[in-house]
Each structure stands twice: as structure tokens, then as C-alpha cells.
Amino acid sequence: MKKSSYQGEYVTSNRILYTPSEFARENLLYLQEIGQVHARRPHISTHPDLASYLFMMVLSGSGTLSYLGEEYRLSGGDCALVNCKNEYYHKSSEDLWTIRWIHFYGPTASGIYQKYMERGGQIRFHPAGMDGFTDCWEQIASLASSDDHIRDMKINEQLASLFCLVMAESWHPESLKGGRGRQSLLEIREYLRDHLAEKITLDLLSERFFMNKYYLTRLFRREYGMTINDYLLQMRISHAKELLRFSQISVEEVGESCGITPLYYFSRIFKQVEGISPRDYRKKWQ
Q1: DSSP H/E element including 263
Q2: Mean pLDDT throughout 150-162?
Q3: How far, rounded to the nearest angstrom, does the alpha carbon of residue 196 sit from its chain's CA centroid?
Q4: 3-class secondary structure, 256
Q5: If you write DSSP's letter for every residue of 92-154 in order, what string do you get?
Q6: What global pTM score does this model have?
Q7: Is the pLDDT score of 119 beyond 90?
Q8: Distance, CA of 163 to CA of 160 (rounded, Å)
């Protein structure tokens, strides 16, 4: 790990750049970076395409988070959670802010984030209290700079606790029902599940659900953290695995039932996702 302090024209910051073990990268939620920054002048922080999730909380002052083309005003007591694979930046206002952040990732992070969005999670939210979030941040920072021989396990535990706090504070079921955009997404997901064997295109969805295809693409990715094609592929592969394990139909028929044809293409895609051919997958579960 590398711990650094910086005092410049625009910010004063303290951060820990953390290097997790190979075991942590393959099995746990793991820390990439944690820190605190105080803005000395208004400025913009931009970030490249990162395989990371960012949790940030505003201790004081105010600023703006721009995420997937939308702007969110943040002030003291506000928090935000974003997928760093998507375009974003944040900037302090004249009311210079102090923020804390955690960059993290892991093999389960995307699935948890997707569930968070499905439950009505918000990009920006204002928790009833900050004590739990502050405690998680301080525990992770302390562990990251320690010599604890099981610190990766303990960091994983704290990151899981952070996700629990986020889930609890950002549960907005009413937002899933209110607003045509989100209701349409629920209808689209149901349509995708019911028509896996059919050819589904963005133009078809746009026409069927009366939504501009570019707006639909942006909205879907913002809500679920993935493209429509990636989501559809995920469902098709899951359905294929179910058929391979619990039915006697041929591998070719499995591919047809999932909308992935011809057979050679289905076999190639399945192996890309699962690391094993459909036939070998079936043998493994027989």
C-alpha cells in the first residue's frame, strides 16, 4: 500500500493506495483506494474508465457529481455510489467541500450494485445518519494502513457492511412504481425474460415501449449498471444452464430456446461466459 498526503493549490488530501492480495482479487470485495480531500479552490476532478465502484460522502460544503450525463447536487450529509466504468466527474462549488471516498471492486461487486439499483437505489442519497458510514470508512482506513495478517478479510467484511448500509438507506420502492421511465424498464425486463428465444433488437424495444432508443440505452445502463445486450446475454446463459442441468433436450435445442444460434455460436458464447463448453457443463452436473 502507499499512503500519501498532498497540499496543493486546489486541494489538501490524504489517501491510501491499496494493493490487495491475489486471493482478495479473486474472492473478496477489495479496496483499491481510500481517502479524504478538502477543496481549497473550486475545481473539477475527472476520472478515466475504471473497473471500480466509488462511494463518496460529503462532510461539509457542497459540489456537483456528473454521472452518465446527469448532474447531482451534493452537500453536507449526502452520499453517492457510482459505477466507475461509466462516465463521471465531480467538482466543488464556491462552498468548498470536504469529502471522503472509497474505491473498491471484487467478483461480487457488480451483482450487488445491480441489486442495489433494482431495489430503487439512488446515485445520490441522504442517509438518516452518517455514523455507520463514518465508522466503515475509518475502519477500512485503519485496516489498510495496518499490518494485520487477515486485513483483506476484514476489509471485505467492512465493505459488505458498507453495502448493507447503502441498501438500507437507499431503499425507495415508491420510485420503482412512480415515473414512466422506471416502470418501462421493469416492463422491458419482463419482456426480455419472456422472449429469450426470439431475436430482440434495440429498435424493437424502442418501438414496442415508445421510448427513444438512445434514451432507453442510457436509462437502462444508469439503472442496472450494464447494457441491454449484456443483461439479455446474462439471462440467456442463466436459462441455458438451467436447461442443461434439468432437461434432456439437446445442446442445440438449448441454444435455440435461449435465442443463441447456430450451435457453434452458442457453444462459443457459453464457453466465453462460463469457461466451459455446454456439453462439458452438462456432464459436470450429471
Answers
A1: helix 263-274
A2: 97
A3: 24
A4: helix
A5: E-SS--EEEEEEEE-TTHHHHHHHHHHTT--SEE--S-SHHHHHHHHHHHHHHTS--TTHHHH
A6: 0.62
A7: no
A8: 5
